[in-house]
């Protein structure tokens, strides 16, 4: 492992889909609190079903819903696999990255 002393406590999986990235992080860092944001209702429901035995993974419809909790506006790791590919313009991608 490149950073053996890194022990993340929070993980944002933006565009979480079925939760495979969240499950991987939880296997590596069992103490990590995971916010999985998935706007697609069907994908979110499937992800919740697949992750229902993982109490540290919490699914949300959008980023605003996940940030209503105290101390949730900063994360040790932010992951957004394939999300930027779906945004049509470079200007919109920069807004999302900001």
Compact summary:
With 98 residues, the protein is α/β, with parallel strands linked by helices. It has helices at residues 20-28, 41-50, 63-66, 90-97; strands spanning 10-14, 33-37, 57-60, 77-79.
Any descriptors?
98 residues, alpha/beta, Rossmann fold, 4-stranded parallel sheet, globular
Helix and strand sequence: EHEHEHEH
- Count the E strands: 4
Distance between the termini: 29 Å
Judged by helices, strands and strand pairing, the structural class is alpha/beta
Per the principal axes of the C-alpha atoms, what is the gross shape?
globular
- Count of distinct structural domains: 1
- Mean pLDDT equals 87
| Fourth CATH level, the homologous superfamily | Vaccinia Virus protein VP39
Largest sheet: 4 strands, parallel
Describe the protein's architecture and organization.
Helices cover 32% and strands 17% of the residues. 24% of the residues are buried. The chain has 4 helices and 4 strands, in the order βαβαβαβα. The model has no long low-confidence stretch (mean pLDDT 87). The chain is an alpha/beta fold and 98 residues long. The longest helix is centred in the middle third of the chain and has 10 residues. It starts with 9 loop residues before the first strand and ends with a helix. The chain has one domain: Rossmann fold (3-Layer(aba) Sandwich), CATH 3.40.50. The radius of gyration is 14 Å and the shape is globular. A 4-stranded parallel β-sheet has the order 3-2-1-4.
């Amino acid at each position: 492992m490149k950073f053996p002393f890194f022990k993340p406590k929070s993980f944002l999986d933006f565009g979480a889909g079925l939760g495979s990235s969240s499950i991987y992080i939880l296997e590596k860092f069992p103490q990590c609190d995971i916010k999985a944001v998935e706007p697609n209702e069907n994908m979110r429901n499937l992800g919740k079903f697949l992750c229902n035995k993982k109490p540290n993974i919490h699914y949300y419809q959008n980023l605003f819903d996940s940030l209503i909790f105290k101390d949730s506006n900063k994360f040790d790791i932010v992951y957004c696999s394939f999300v930027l590919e779906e945004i049509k313009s470079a200007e919109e991608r920069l807004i999302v990255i900001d």
